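Look at one such:
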Amino acid sequence: MSCLLGVDVSTTGVKAVLIDYRGVVLGTVTTAHALSTPYPLWSEQNPEDWWSGACASIREVLRITKVPRSEIRAVGLTGQMHSLALLGTRNQVLRPAILWNDQRTAQQCDRIRDELGSDKLLTITGNDALTGFTLPKLIWVQENEPEIYGNIEHLLLAKDYVRLCLTGDYATDCAGASGTSMLDIRKRDWSDEVLSSFSIPRRWLPKTHEGPVFTGVISPDAEAATGLAAGTPVVAGAGDQAAQAVGVGAVSPGINAVTLGTSGVVFASTDRPIIEPNGALHSFCHAVPSRWHMMGVMLSAGGSLRWLRDRLSPELSFEKLTHGAGRIPVGSNGLLFLPYLTGERTPHADPLARGALIGLTIRHQYQHIVRAVLEGVCFGLRDGFELLHSAGLPAPQEVRVSGGGMQSPVWRQILSDVLGLSLYGVDSTEGAAFGAALLAGVGAGVWKTVDEACDEAVHTTHRVDAEDSARGAYNGLYELYRDMYPSLRALTHRLAESE
């Protein structure tokens, strides 16, 4: 029996998923870790919590599955993108890691655009400078914590800190590195021009690798900490969104993916790097060698519904919440929701954007607000599809959906109606960790290619088709939704600046 292990270092915890050579999940364990928000716009974690969580999850999944560690062929890593972990001599952590959803770096993004040039930045990295990305965080440390900056020896992404603890190697993957604003996405390696523009020593950065390539093996110290056998190979893996795409089989052009978790992601694979001219979409390397992907990201998708539930009805399950919204008519009787509760990235890269409910009247009940939130998130995801189309990508042959939000039949139907597209669920439900395990299998020779791994291990299940009457109504409501942000931008900026 050959088994593969996927480890996902997410924002909320570390998940370990063990699968067999057919892609059947044998066991999964998640260990939660804390998030710190010491100041407005800040979001940080202790990298040592990532490692302790990885150890706990790996040991527990080995215990509950009773799989001999000698049967594990390889380990794949994935995790939150963009997060900056800074290490000094002997790999000590210099400060808490600054996370992907940290919004403190608006001024540093302006500096990047000014000093490098927006057009050149887009040409090299495929992306605008965004507050979530890694380079602005590093410049913030340079400007605000010079003593820490002067002691930097290495900088790593979240999963790559865990890799260092597992193998002793400094390495990363091309997909994850694409979200740093320091990678040349065409060369699939660090950009000397970007690094020199901001005096960043290349020796600080780990070597880049393709997703299925081995980067090292489990060390004797990691064997003692995790229970994995020393010498077990570890592959490069991928940033969480590329690994999630592998986990649902969205690895070839024509198969798009939508992930509706805390954030919302629209994902399309390409066989060449395509750059959206205004930087409104991300252009990244894929976890699949010689492929790229375009991606739109909403910061508060499922997070918007969680916010509403936690503030007003924490006793209700999400299932009951969305089921009740299913009895409300399309359009929530004239109520629209703008889901920018934590700023926004796609289509408006604006950390000062704010959420809004428009159209409230005395007749609206709680379930109207719930449905408006569901619809507003779906309109935000449609923004991503509209941008993909304007960038020249053809209509998708298939859209595969995943994430906690897509467990709701009501939300799935609303999304299908808003997009005017059929949606397909998949039988793999472990997301990015599952995709990381598949990449490990390709590296270990279980499958020859990532495409083959997905064909054999990922299968579509249910299908949801758009309803014509709802589709037509949502087309008109979407045009109203698109007017909300430009109409409110000046006001929400003034409010945000007064916080």
Observations:
- DSSP finds 17 helices and 24 strands in the chain.
- Residues 19 and 276 are 37 Å apart (CA to CA).
- Residues 468-497 form the longest helix (30 residues).
- Residues 3-242 form a domain with the Nucleotidyltransferase; domain 5 fold (CATH 3.30.420.40).
